[in-house]
Structure prediction request, 276 residues.
Amino acid sequence: MILTDTMHEPAAIRQPADRNGQAVIHLESVHKTYYLGEVQVHALRGISLEIHEGEMVAVMGASGSGKSTLMNIVGCLDRPTKGSYQLAGVDVSNMTKVELARIRNSRIGFVFQQFNLLSRTSALENVELPTIYAGLPPEERHQRARRALEQVGLADRAHHHPSQLSGGQQQRVAIARALVNQPSILLADEPTGNLDSRTSVEVMDIFQRLNEEHGITVVLVTHEHDIASYAKRNLEFRDGKLRRDVLVRDRMMARDILPTMKSVGEEDEEEQARER
Prediction:
């Protein structure tokens, strides 16, 4: 992986120039301040950035760097204290909670480190849930859920419960659930954090295919540099500020890496053979 740095000094970040599509995410001088008792916490300190349609961006930084706060604002789960946030050209900075919920349900899909699946319902029913909140009729709900499971390669597991699925399969169900309302943006918070190495690459393959073949804008939070290397662009946060904004040259492509990787079972068998 080669990173092309777009800045010379921390205060002079320039946005990468070789991108196509309109800015679907535009933050201008965004601040976010929290209060813990009488203590004022500056989670974001004047963030300005654009993410364009069809990008795949990794957001990186240590705990407390501001990356999770950024994702909450980008995902319309929170609002900036100061500054503006435009989503697909619409200023959502001062929308009500009801308006933000409507935007989230129609434009944004969420994937989390914890899969957050309902244990007593099937994969298909878990995927259908957002369409129920969207008020879609039953037949359309079923069709969309089945189609989303097909997109992540789990059509044959539609009626399995989470306990009958591996961790990687559960994350695929979670991705299908994020896709079911046909969002233009996927936000993923540490989506490979609970997965082994091969399964992590399989999940990145899904994100890359959704980005390349369907044009979905993907923004993922990760602390793993190898996972960030599958993105097209890396944003690095520290102390509430965007410190680096870099394009990834010669990025890793999961479809090329997977054939070279052994499964966990194969590695265990080889280790047992060596011990014998």
DSSP finds nine helices and eleven strands in the chain.
